[in-house]
Structures are given as C-alpha cells and as structure tokens.
C-alpha cells in the first residue's frame, strides 16, 4: 500500500488510517485487494513498558478506524496487501508498507492550531515590514515645496462682483426702456 496517512483526534480517542492500493500493471480496481494492518504501541522507557503489536483482522477497503488511541502514547502502523480472490493478483501477501508513526506529539488539533498561527504570524510580519518601509521612506524622501500664490493679497479685479454689477445695470436699462 502507498501513501499511508493517519489523522487522530484526542477528544474521540480515534485515528483514521487511509492508504492507496498497491500499483500493479494490470489491476486498476481498489476492490481487488484485501489488507492486513498491524498497529504497534511503542515502548516507553520512563514507564517501563514494552512494544506490543496488535494485528488487525483482514480489511476489504483502504480505510481503517483505530478506536484505542491515547495521545500520550506512541504508535506505528504498517499495512500489507494481497489478492481479494478474483483479480488475478498473487495470492501471497505483499511487502509491509513503511511504518508510519503517530501519537505522543502528532494530533490533528495541534496541526490545525499551527495552521492558524503561521498565517497570523506571516500577516503580522508583513504589516510590520510595510510600516517600517513607510517610515523609512518618509524620513529619507525629499519634501516637495508647495507652489506659492504669485499675487499675494486681494485680486485687483473681482470678476464675480463686476459681473453682478453688469447684470444689474442691464436690468435697470431694460426697465427704463420699457417705461419709455
């Protein structure tokens, strides 16, 4: 079997173990195989315990739920495959997969915690760098002087007032012309 993965949750004391069927040149169905799993509790030198293996019964699919998980203990799992009886695969058991360790330090809750912390730290670092670069650029860049008004003081001609006076004069002339 290939790509053996183990995902454990401390709260439920369960581990889901998944794998892919072995590669063969002529078998394309995963239902062509049956599997044997061995889960081993690792020895603990502090508590004077020995390693113990627990063979699991034959499994017909590529998924197994291990329900005796304790987060403070270390385990390893290995899997091997053989013909399920109808796919013309060798009836002999294949090689054991590479043992996959789990428990003691590896918990799904820890992994999800790390998945939340790392992006948070990255965002904080990015914000810090942006603020630092902004402050540096503000200190080192030259200030651009603002243009000054070339004619300080009041304008010699107030066009708006002049236009209003012109309109008033025209209205007055029209009224006079109407009266005449």
UniProtKB/TrEMBL annotation:
Membrane topology summary: Single-pass type I membrane protein
Subcellular location field: Membrane
Residue intervals passing through the bilayer: 113-137
InterPro entries: FN3_dom (IPR003961), FN3_sf (IPR036116), Ig-like_fold (IPR013783)
GO molecular function, one term: cytokine receptor activity
Keywords of the record: Glycoprotein, Membrane, Receptor, Signal, Transmembrane, Transmembrane helix
Domain Fibronectin type-III: 1-107
Annotated protein name in UniProt: CSF2R factor
């Amino acid at each position: 079997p290939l790509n053996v993965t183990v995902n454990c949750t401390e709260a439920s004391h369960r581990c889901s173990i998944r794998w892919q069927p072995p590669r063969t040149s002529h078998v394309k169905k995963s239902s062509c195989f049956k599997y044997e799993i061995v889960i081993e509790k690792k020895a603990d030198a502090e508590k004077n315990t020995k390693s113990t293996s627990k063979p699991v019964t034959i499994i017909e699919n590529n998924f197994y739920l291990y329900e005796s998980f304790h987060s403070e203990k270390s385990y390893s799992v290995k899997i091997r495959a053989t013909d399920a009886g109808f796919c013309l695969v060798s009836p002999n058991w294949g090689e054991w997969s590479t043992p996959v360790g789990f428990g003691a330090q590896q918990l799904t809750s820890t992994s999800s915690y790390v998945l939340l912390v790392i992006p948070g730290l990255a965002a904080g670092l990015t914000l810090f760098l942006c603020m630092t670069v902004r402050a540096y650029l503000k200190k080192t860049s030259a200030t651009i002087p603002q243009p000054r008004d070339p004619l300080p003081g009041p304008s010699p001609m107030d066009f708006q007032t002049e236009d209003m006076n012109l309109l008033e004069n025209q209205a007055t002339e029209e009224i006079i012309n109407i009266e005449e």
